[in-house]
Amino acid sequence: MRILGIDPGYAILGYGIIEMRGNRFKVIDYGAVTTEAGMEMPDRLKVLYNSLMELIGRFEPEVASVEELFFNTNAKTAILVGQARGVALLACSNSGLEIAEYTPLQIKQALVGNGRAEKKQVQFMVKTILNLKEAPKPDDTADALAAAICHGHSAGARNRLKGL
Length: 164
Known about the structure:
EC number: 3.1.21.10
Largest sheet: 5 strands, mixed
Strand content: 15-25%
Subcellular location: Cytoplasm
Distance between the termini: 21 Å
Keywords: Cytoplasm, DNA damage, DNA recombination, DNA repair, DNA-binding, Endonuclease, Hydrolase, Magnesium, Metal-binding, Nuclease
Strand order of the largest sheet: 3-2-1-4-5
Number of strands: 5
Low-confidence stretches: none
Shape: globular
Binding site for Mg(2+) 2: 67
Oligomer: single chain
Family: Belongs to the RuvC family.
Helix content: 40-55%
Number of helices: 5
């Protein structure tokens, strides 16, 4: 199964594409889509959408694992990130991908075993699980790979339960 992990953001959208075979993960690609600070929001959203459509077309994932919005105290930022997340969901839906959504707590729990884990612990587990030399940068990229791994673990568990 090929999984596209997405950590939504309007300035930086992290993505990670992994392949899951059995209980093993292999990195296909990862990175970040960035938009310039001075850009109008509609233009930023267009860049995010077009970039995701290009990535989906190039790597042909079967499923997208998208991190749910964590609402912080800054409502304006949350709304802007929510718009970017909506564009990511639209790109995935328009491409016919199955979409799974996970909270940051669920992702941390799946990777570290603790939903309150620190960012460095998640990055360490991403590096370890994917057999990388160092943790991916920027942090948004590691978060996207973590979302993809979370779905891989979740889908793997569901498939094992079906076999019972």
